[in-house]
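quick one, 309 residues, struct below
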Amino acid sequence: MAVIESPLFKAQSGLRQGWRRLRKNWTAYLFLAPGLLHFFVFTLFAVIFAFYLSFHKWNILEPDKPFVGLANYFRLFGDERFHQSVGNTLLFMLGIPLTMALGLGIALLLNIKIRGQAIYRTLFYLPVITPLVVSSIIWKWIYQGDYGLLNYYLLKLGLINQKLLWLSDPDLALPALIFMGVWAGAGGHMIIYLAGLQAIPEEIYDSAKVDGANGWQRLIHVTIPLLSPTTFFLFITSVIATFQIFTQIYIMTSGGPLNRTATIGYYLYEKAFRHLDMGYATAMAFALFAMIFVFTLLQMKFTRGDIEY
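---
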């Protein structure tokens, strides 16, 4: 005869089993505790508190921090500087296809067995592991108008007839920063593309050769389609990184002439740490999160049919 167990008995049994597992694995939880504590304090609590700040007029120097509801979020719609920073951030994305194309080109070249292959890969990857602060200082010197290396060699080659103020000219500052971003990011794309290339079975290329496909046709009809998941991954991560761009703006241009290089991240920093308007800055941060989230969803929706997961 079957014994009918009551819900209370099942709950007590499950509790006992859980407690038994906890005692058995207590050392694992002990080792995980520092990481979990860091996550709860510096990530989860920080996000919740930032969300709370976004509904207040919060100046760290003023004792009164009134609740303003959605006023900080509505303020974004009328803020011309915020609109300009969004536009500047979107313009920075023009460098993403260039970075991906350069990374793929280098990966294709370094996927061939050549002498010193490891050295070449290391050299191309060096900009990625170089701290961005250091790279920004070096490039600021290269772009310097009076004694910078770029103007020196361009004048030597006769490509320009006068010195250009790369970081002070409103029309040149943004392209200069985009070019620096392409240099800094191509090595990272190269490594990811190399991994994707080496995952493609050699038999597919052999079959294409048997069918009479030349090198260009194999690239267009075999390599690029099979690299589509890698390309999708790099595109999404590059877009997210571009939305968060800050370091090179802060070091090289400080927003640039007429705020032509001020991105969302830089404008957010200005509001938070120069104007001490923490409530508005956190509202801007959540607006930035919403943009990244929506953009990622749209990309996944429109490319779902072309990507094999």
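Residues 80-303 form a domain with the MetI-like fold fold (CATH 1.10.3720.10).
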